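Entry 12.
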Amino acid sequence: MPPATPELISARSARVSAARRLAKRNFRGKDRLFLAEGPQAVREAAAHRTPAGDATLVELFATVEAAERYPDIVGEVRAAGARVHLAADDVIADISTTVTPQGLVGICRFLDTPFEEILAARPRLVAVLAHVRDPGNAGTVLRCADAAGADAVVLTDASVDLYNPKAVRASVGSLFHLPVAVGVPVEEAVAGLKGTGVRILAADGAGGDDLDDELDKGTMGGPTAWVFGNEAWGLPEETRALADAVVRVPIHGRAESLNLATAAAVCLYASARAQRAPGGCRSVTSG
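Predicted 3D structure (C-alpha cells):
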C-alpha cells in the first residue's frame, strides 16, 4: 500500500482558514465551535456528546505521522461521524495554538450545560470560578474538580472563556467529563445552589475559618460549592459576603501562599473525603 499523502497542503484553504480563526474568542462564539488539540483531548471529544445529544467532535485535522501513530483515535473519530482531513505538517502548525503541535487538532461543538440543568441534578460538589481570568488556571481547576469527583463546574460571567485553547489544554480532557455552566452571574450561581441545599464556601487566604477546623467539626460532609476567586486579588468583599463561610487553607510551613489551582485541589479533595466518610452526603446516597 502506498504511503498516505496529505490532502490539505495549503494554509490558505477555506477549511484551514475556518479552523484557524477559532483561536479567537469572537469567532468561537459566532461559530459555537472550539479547538481541541492532542491525542487525549481528541479521544475524549470523539466519545462525548453535547447536552443536546449531538456529537461533540465534528472535524479532525491530522498529520500523516499522527494518523499512523494513533490509528485507534482516528478510527474512533470516524466512528463518531466526524470528518478526518490529513494535512501537511505546516498546515497543522498553522491551525495549532501550541509551540510544538502533537499532530491532531479537533473542531468541537460548544458543550456547556445550562445552569438550570446543573441545579436540577441536585449536585453535591461544585466548583464555582468567580473572576478567574487565567485560562491555564481555569482548565487546571476544572481538571482538579473532575479528579475530586465534583458534579459540576460553574464559570461566572466575570471569568475567562471556557473554550480558550489554553484552558482546553490545561483541562487535559476533563472538559469532556463533567457538566460546565458558563456566563452565570456569581449572585445567581450562589442563590441557585443555595436553593438546592448546597452550602457555599468561599476559598480565601484571609478567610476567618480554617479548613482543618471545618474538617474537625464535621461540617463538610453535606452538599458543598467552593467559590474560587481571581489569581492576584482573590475574591471581592461582595462575593465573600454571599458565602456561608470564608475558608482559608492553613499554611503550616513558610510558604507565603498557595496558587489558585493548588488551593482548589486541596479544598475540593477535603470536601470529597468528608462526603465519602460515614454520614457524608455521598455515602448516604450510595448506601
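Annotation: DSSP finds 14 helices and eleven strands in the chain. The radius of gyration is 21 Å.
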